[in-house]
Amino acid sequence: MVDDAERELREAAGQEFADLVARLRRGEIGGPAAPVDAEPLRPGDIEPWPGRGGARAEELVRLGEEALRRGEVASLVVAGGAATRFGGGAKALVPVLGERSFLDLKLEDARRAGAPWRRPVPVAVMTSPLTHDEIAERVEGDRGVLLFQQRMLPRLTPELRLFRGTDGEPSLAPGGHGDVFRALRDGGVGAELARRGVRILYFTNVDNLAATLDPLVLGAHLALGSAMTVELTSRRNPSGALDTGAAPVRSGGRVFLVEHVDPAAHRLISTNDIAFDLPRILAAPVPLPWRVARKQVDGREALQLEQVTGEATALVDARGAPLLESAYLEVPREDPEQTRFEPVKAREDLPRVAARIAKRFAPGSATFRA
Question: What is the per-residue pLDDT across 133-150, written as a single tens digit (0 to 9) for each?
């Protein structure tokens, strides 16, 4: 028998969402990832940063440059978030260096990465209904940019009823950057990139401008040979504080990311910059778990159902084998000349980050080479 709450959910967002909330009621969907019996990481679990100029680094750069020369690389930029801490609008379009926005600088990075071989690097931008129109207007006429949208889901009250805004309508929120796997497949952008010969899809958040298309990183992904290569870095940020976020954990004979850990117990943090093997992530659905995020909306507590991209590292198939084999590369953070992790989460972060990344985006610089 369908009760009023389920009927309301189904009418607002469809049966799939109503079923998802039913799972939440049964306790099948939680907040933080379940604790694991972690073992110490072992030598070989994390590929160390090779530095610049040595034989290993030169070989990785060669592999990455060959992939760029063959047109096998695309950039995927996550740009679905609204700039609520910056006064509204699409965060991707907030100016960073002069009038150049986050998105402008990501597009510059792609152009410079392909320029030596006259092979433009396509840029797939995952927008949301919150940002799509503004971004579409900004890139109109740029044939190297492909847009696709992540889905929006209704927020819930703590009692698991529809959360309604001040206008009385259901309040919607993006379903997390983990929706990228579904959105790439359903929107056709993944298939279009494959048609163009792309094999490496480099996934980054629009607000991390240090994550450039570096041939060394692309080459490391190829050399490590996994379906996804996750960049890790020091959890200690330039101010000395320990950031919260996913960490690599060894359990059951393998390494995967766990979202909620004790920062003091895990020195490395995922940057959420990931090189994917495109054919592998298009071959079959990637059934990420759902997580519950608690937010304050209109002065009230709301629950949002979200999926997290990095949790693909923990998925296994019917035989218990990793669904997407993952490798891990430790990358620099402290040195402004080398850093690959400079997220801008609030307006007060912007001046410091802009100063740290300005040189690599100066006219004539090779952005993707530190």
Answer: 999 999 999 999 999 999
Task: Give the integer Cα–Cα distance in Å for 330 and 283.
Answer: 28
**Residue 142, Cβ neighbours under 10 Å: how many?**
10
- Collapsed DSSP state (helix, strand, coil) of residue 229: strand
**Strand (E) positions, the chain?**
73-78, 95-97, 100-101, 123-127, 145-149, 152-154, 172-174, 200-205, 228-234, 247-251, 254-258, 268-277, 291-297, 300-306, 326-330
User: What pTM did the predictor assign?
Assistant: 0.94
Nearest alpha carbon to residue 363 among 164, 97, 123, 14: 97
Q: Do 92 and 101 form a contact (C-beta atoms < 8 A)?
A: yes
Q: How far apart are CA 368 and CA 370, in angstroms?
A: 6
Which residues are within 8 A (CB) of 361 and not within 5 positions of it... i.e. 6 or more apart? 97, 100, 105, 108, 209, 367
First to last CA, the chain: 61
Q: What is the pLDDT of residue 238?
A: 87
Structural domains of the chain sorted by starting position, each given as residue range(s) with its CATH number in brackets: 31-361 (3.90.550.10)
CB 203 within 8 A of CB 276: yes
Following DSSP, what letter does each residue of 146-180 receive, concatenated?
Answer: EEEE--EEE-B-TTSSBPB-TTSSBPEEE--GGGH
